[in-house]
């Protein structure tokens, strides 16, 4: 429907701005010209930029271009009455009152469409953020869960599902201690239960060593970290179980080796000492300390020149 706008005021400017809007296009209205006798009317520049024809006289505008619709935006009843006298049979007139209602409807629909687009963008961002966080959570190499203040599992990574040998449905919304107990780890003690309460109150990370007794002897380091909301309130707890049996075994071997070494040098009758690369004593056996009427600790981090007689320090 080919249309002419009569009156290039602010309303004309607003209407032209909607030309490319899908809602406006759905009405199948094609603006072709604008009628305005004022040289400085605010809508004239927009009309020219939009490629619309500019007329000073209403009769001239209605004479050509096969106009089918006249949109009156002057707000002047006298102009409206003149239009009713000039329009050809079949032409329709929308006066400024109806135009405002029409424009408000188009603007509302355009605003709703914009809000819908923004909502879709937001939903996509949230979806991508969830996928991103889930990939990080599932990327944790150890079994991990997110617990509420009652110790109930509200999230579980794939490593925990595999570790528990259960499905997600069997794990979610269940007490963590009852699920983890199946794997031989006992988290039912009071200390374990109180840790969650303390974390919700204090918001500090905690670490706990869990031991599985023989014959399935194992050592686990349980790490708990608080999860905060935008108000810096603890809303959940992230729990991760890290198996440290190899580290414990290694430490035990180190302890045995140190004990054997200490027993050896302490029982030796000869002088035995160990120095670092700078020549400072790391340790000496009791025989050396007794020879100079000193304690073993007196030698630590000192060079022979600092503690021994000159003649002996050169040996």
Level of helix content? Answer: 40-55%
Mean pLDDT: 84
Instruction: Report the strand count.
Output: 12
- The secondary structure category is alpha/beta
Distance between the termini: 112 Å
* Beta strand %: 15-25%
List the helices and strands and how they pair.
Blueprint: E1 2-6, H1 10-16, H2 22-25, E2 30-35, H3 44-49, E3 53-55, H4 58-63, E4 69-72, H5 77-86, E5 92-94, H6 96-139, E6 144-147, E7 153-156, H7 158-164, H8 168-171, H9 176-180, H10 190-202, E8 206-212, E9 218-228, E10 234-243, H11 245-267, E11 273-275, E12 281-284, H12 286-291, H13 304-307, H14 310-313
Parallel strand pairs: 1-2, 1-4, 2-3, 4-5
Antiparallel strand pairs: 6-7, 6-10, 8-9, 9-10, 11-12
Describe the structure.
It is a single chain. The chain is built from 14 helices and twelve strands. The protein is an alpha/beta fold and 315 residues long. The strands form three sheets. Strands 3-2-1-4-5 form a five-stranded parallel beta sheet. The chain has a five-stranded antiparallel beta sheet with strand order 7-6-10-9-8, with helices on both faces. Strand 8 and strand 9 form a beta hairpin. It is elongated and about 130 Å long. The chain starts with a strand and ends with a helix.
Task: Summarize the model shown.
It is built from 14 helices and twelve strands. It has about 325 residues and is of the alpha/beta class.
């Amino acid at each position: 429907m080919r249309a002419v706008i009569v009156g290039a005021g602010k309303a004309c400017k607003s209407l032209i701005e909607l030309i490319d809007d899908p809602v406006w296009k759905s009405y199948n209205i094609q603006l072709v010209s604008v009628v305005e006798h004022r040289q400085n009317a605010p809508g004239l520049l927009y009309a020219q930029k939009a490629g619309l024809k500019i007329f000073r006289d209403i009769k001239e505008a209605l004479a050509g271009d096969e106009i089918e619709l006249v949109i009156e935006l002057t707000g002047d009843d006298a102009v409206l009455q003149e239009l009713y006298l000039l329009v050809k049979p079949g032409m329709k007139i929308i006066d400024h009152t109806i135009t405002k209602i029409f424009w408000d409807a188009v603007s509302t629909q355009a605003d709703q469409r914009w809000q819908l687009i923004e909502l879709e963008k937001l939903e996509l961002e949230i979806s991508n953020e969830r996928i991103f966080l889930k990939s990080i959570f599932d990327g944790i190499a150890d079994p991990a869960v997110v617990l509420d203040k009652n110790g109930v599992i509200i999230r579980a990574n794939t490593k925990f599902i595999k570790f528990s040998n259960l499905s997600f449905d069997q794990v979610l919304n269940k007490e963590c201690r009852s699920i983890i107990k199946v794997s031989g780890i006992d988290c039912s003690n009071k200390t374990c239960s109180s840790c969650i309460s303390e974390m919700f109150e204090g918001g500090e990370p905690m670490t706990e060593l869990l031991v599985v007794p023989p014959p399935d002897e194992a050592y686990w380091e349980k790490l708990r970290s608080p999860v905060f909301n935008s108000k810096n309130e603890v809303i959940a707890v992230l729990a991760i179980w890290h198996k440290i049996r190899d580290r414990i075994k290694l430490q035990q071997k180190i302890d045995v080796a140190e004990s054997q070494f200490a027993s050896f040098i302490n029982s030796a009758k000869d002088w035995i000492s160990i120095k670092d690369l700078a020549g400072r004593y790391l340790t000496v056996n009791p025989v050396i300390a007794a020879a100079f009427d000193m304690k073993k600790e007196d030698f630590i981090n000192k060079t022979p020149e600092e503690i021994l007689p000159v003649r002996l320090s050169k040996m």
